[in-house]
Every structure is written in C-alpha cells, then in structure tokens.
Amino acid sequence: MIRYADSLAGIAASHLEGFFVGWQHPFPPETHLRMLAGSDLAQIAIDGETGRVVGFVAALTDGVQGAFITLLEVLPAWQNQGIGQALMAQMLERLSHIQTIELMCDSELVPFYERFGMTTATGMVLRRREP
Amino acid sequence: MIEYTGSLAGIEPGQLRGFFVDWPRPPSPETHLRLLAGSDHVVLAIDSDTRHVVGYVTALTDGVLTGFIPLLEVIPAYQRQGIGRALMERMHERLGHLPNVDLLCGPDVMPFYERFGMRHVDGMVIRRPMGEAITGRQE
What we know:
heterodimer, A: alpha+beta, B: alpha+beta, 4 helices, 29% strand
C-alpha cells in the first residue's frame, strides 16, 4: 500500500535511496533530504510496508503569486501505478490558491502535465553542474 | 540615481505603483508587497529622488538545488537604462551557490537572459487570473 504524506515528519535520509535515476551526479540521500526540507512544499509517496519513500514532488512558492515545481520522481520499480499522477494532483491542490505554477520538463512529459491543465511554455535555465 | 537593495525594510505599498504592465488583472501594490515578502530573495531598484521602486526581481530557492526567478520587471519609463540587467546580475550573484537557476519567459526576452549564460528549454505553466487565485480555492 502506498501512503501519501505532506510533511517530512519521520523521514530519514535512509528512506530516500534510489532517486535521481539517470543523473550524472545524483544527490546523496542526505542532500536530497536537505533539498526537500528547504522546499516550501514537499509531497511524498511512502511504501506502507517498508517505510521507504518511493516518490516525491517538491515545490517553491512565494505563497501569493508564483510557484515552481522543481522535481517530481517515482522510483522505477514503482512507476506506471499512478503514483506520479497522485503526487502531482496533491501538489496542485496544495497550490490551488497560487496564480502561476510553472515547471521545466522534457518534451516526452508534456502529455502527462497537460492532463493537469498545464500548457507548454518556454524558459531559460542556467546549469552549473550537469544533472 | 538608481539605488539597489536586497531588503524590503521600510518599503510601503505606495512605493510599488506602476508594475504588472499589460496584466489583465494585476495584483494590488499590497499584494505585490506580500509576494515580495514571501520570496526567498528580492532585489529592488529605487529612484533615490522619488523613493519609488522602479524595478524588482524575485527568487525562490530550496537552498540546495534550484533557484527559480518568478518575476523581473522594470517600470516602462525606466527601461533601456540597464536596470533590468543590474537587477539580474545581483540576483544571479545571490544564487551563485546553486547548481540550477530556472525561469520561464517568452522568446522575445531570451537574448537578454542568454547574456547571463542561460540557455533555452521548454516548460509548462498554469496561469490563473490573479483575483480568482487570491480569493480562494475554486471548488
């Protein structure tokens, strides 16, 4: 059973193994936990049996106008079960009072985000460290 | 003279008039001040003669991976004087410890951001009218 949580209460770095799949320089779990703790909102999917985090989405917001979804990831073994969709829906619900919600994504993910009423946009990024 | 500051100390809503040009439902100066206060970083450009804020940039960050720049604006009468560039330079300095700095923008302003070493990517967005978003949740 998957349990969803809107806080990091009880989450340790050891619960965060296996993320940043495909990154050249994946963050260690300790850094990952700091990144989640430093985000304004984090929503996590937890395997009820093991307590392991199997998916997460993180967002930054000014609480009024703007929000940015920095990362959404589900561990490979847990994909295609609707966990990413549930995490995203829960995050958008938490951001429902915010006017503008933005994210960067690769083109193959556009249909996924379109389901939530998002439309394509263009942006600019600075990458000091290849992901 | 234009002064730059990273602090909102002493800034009143009355100093924040004339922004959100061409927005269908612009936030009020009071809401503008709240969104500035809710940001992790702000840089303001202030006309030292009038004490009006004539430009600003905001950023949100998790302190580890990402800095995101939601808004950068210079009042029309103060454009083409390098104020936007000065604001952006100061904000990039503040975000210099972060691996990623992201923003969304139209193709017309991409050359401006390319000067800061940024490159083009695609993103996605939800935009709601300001009034609806502020008055509460839509059931």
